[in-house]
Specification:
The strands form 3 sheets. An 8-stranded mixed beta sheet has the order 3-2-1-4-5-6-12-9, sandwiched between helices. Strands 7-8 form a two-stranded antiparallel sheet. It has a two-stranded antiparallel ribbon with strand order 10-11. The relative contact order is 0.15. The protein contains 13 helices and 12 strands. It is of the alpha/beta class. Helix 2 packs parallel to helix 12, helix 2 packs across helix 13 and helix 5 packs across helix 6. The structure holds alpha-D-ribofuranose and calcium ion (CA). Calcium ion binds next to helix 2.
Length: 346
C-alpha cells in the first residue's frame, strides 16, 4: 500500500485529484481577491491554480496585474502566469455610471470607474514596480486551458465576468467542457452594494454576467451578497490576523487597516469576506449550511435596476443550467480557514 502511495506521489497522479483552477480577478492591493489567492496558493493538496486572469473592476487591468505580481512575489510564486483580458466592460461605461448617478442618486461604489484608465501603474506601497509584464491574452488563455483539460477546470470568478463572457462567445463549445464556475456576484433577497439594486461585480458588467448565467456551464455556484452579508469582518477579526507579522499579514494590515474599510482609523468599520468565501468553497465546501437551485438572469436594461439579479425566463435561454445559490454558512469554520491560510508562514 505504502509503495503504491509513494508511486502515486512520485508519478504525479496524486495531483490528478486536485481541482484545476483558473483564477479570474479584479484585485486591488489585497482586499478579498488577494486573500482568496493566498488561500488557494497555500492549499496545494486541494487546488492547483493554473493561471491568473485579470479583469477590470475594483481597478483597471494594468494596476490589477501589478497588485497580483506583488502578492505572487510575497508568496514566492513569481512564475505563475498572469494575463490581462478585456480593457473594460462589454457595454457599461464611465459616462453611463455618471449619468446614472445624476438621475437616480449617488452610487455606493463604482470601482475603476472612479479612476483614470490612462493613469500610470503604481507599485504596492513600500515596493518597486514588478519587472515582468502580464500577458495580454487572458480570453484565449481561458479557452485553451479549458480545452486542454476538458471537464476538469473550475473557474473561480471574483470580479465582473467580462473575460469569461468573451471566452464563451468566442468558443461556445467550451461551455460544456468547463467543470464548474464558482463566482462571487449578484444579490437575490438583499440590497445591492453598488446601487441599491445591484451587487458590484454584476453591476460593473451586467451583460457579461447575463451571458454566463444563460450559459450551459454544467455547474454554477453563486456566492452573492445573500451569503456574503453573513461573513462580515470586524476589527476583532482584523486584529487576529494583523497581530501576526509576515509579509502577507503586513499587506493585509496596510490594505484593510489604512484603505478599505480603514480599521486603523475607523474601528467600527466592516469589511466582508466576499471573494475569499468563494475561494474557501474550493477548500472546505462543508462550511456552507444552506443552498438552493435557481434559474437566474441579470437585468440589462439601463435604468435603476441595471445589473440586478432576476429570475430567468427559461424560454429565452432553454439550454441554461441552474445556479446553486449559497445562502447559509458556519462563520466560525470559514473564518478559521481564512485566518489559518492568511497567517501561515511560507
Ligand atoms: O461585491 C463584492 C465584490 O466587488 C468583490 O468581488 C469585491 O472584490 C468587489 O470586486
Ligand atoms: Ca473581486
Amino acid at each position: 500500500m505504502r509503495l503504491l502511495a509513494g508511486f502515486l506521489v512520485v508519478s504525479g497522479l496524486w495531483g490528478a485529484t486536485r481541482d484545476l483552477v483558473l483564477f479570474d480577478t479584479d484585485s486591488g492591493l489585497f482586499g478579498d481577491d488577494g486573500a482568496a489567492l493566498v488561500m488557494l496558493l497555500r492549499s496545494p493538496s486541494k487546488v492547483s491554480v493554473q493561471a491568473i486572469t485579470i479583469v477590470p473592476g475594483n481597478v483597471w487591468g494594468p494596476q490589477g496585474a501589478e497588485y497580483m505580481f506583488h502578492i505572487l512575489d510575497l508568496l514566492k510564486r513569481a512564475n505563475l502566469t498572469v494575463a490581462m483580458g478585456a480593457d473594460g466592460p462589454l457595454l457599461h461605461t464611465i459616462a453611463m455610471a455618471r449619468e446614472w448617478g445624476r438621475r437616480w442618486g449617488t452610487l455606493s461604489y463604482i470601482g475603476a470607474f472612479a479612476q483614470d484608465p490612462t493613469a500610470a501603474v503604481i507599485p504596492a506601497p513600500g515596493s518597486k514596480l514588478a519587472t515582468r509584464k502580464p500577458r495580454r491574452d487572458a480570453v484565449n488563455l481561458l479557452i485553451s486551458e479549458i480545452e486542454r483539460h476538458p471537464g476538469e477546470v473550475t473557474i473561480l470568478a471574483l470580479g465582473p465576468m467580462t473575460n469569461i463572457a468573451l471566452a464563451l462567445r468566442m468558443k461556445p463549445d467550451i461551455e460544456s467542457k468547463i467543470q464548474r464556475i464558482v463566482f462571487m456576484g449578484g444579490n437575490i433577497r438583499v440590497a445591492g452594494n453598488a446601487s441599491n439594486a445591484a451587487e458590484f461585480n454584476f453591476w460593473f458588467d451586467p451583460e457579461a454576467a447575463r451571458i454566463v448565467l444563460r450559459s450551459r456551464i454544467p455547474q454554477k455556484v453563486m456566492f452573492g451578497l445573500d451569503i456574503c452579508n453573513l461573513a462580515p469582518i470586524h476589527k476583532a477579526e482584523f486584529d487576529q490576523i494583523a497581530a501576526v507579522h509576515t509579509p502577507v499579514t503586513e499587506l493585509f494590515r496596510e490594505d484593510l487597516g489604512n484603505r478599505y474599510p480603514g480599521f486603523l482609523k475607523k474601528p467600527d468599520a466592516v469589511a466582508y469576506m466576499w471573494d475569499s468565501l468563494a475561494a474557501a468553497y474550493l477548500l472546505e465546501p462543508e462550511f456552507v449550511t444552506k443552498s438552493e437551485p435557481r434559474y437566474l438572469d441579470v437585468h440589462t436594461t439601463w435604468g435603476q435596476f441595471y445589473g440586478s439579479t432576476v429570475p430567468l425566463d427559461r424560454r429565452v435561454a432553454p439550454g441554461a443550467t441552474p445556479v446553486t445559490v449559497m445562502l447559509g454558512l458556519d462563520f466560525k469554520r470559514v473564518f478559521g480557514l481564512y485566518k489559518d491560510r492568511l497567517t501561515r508562514v511560507d
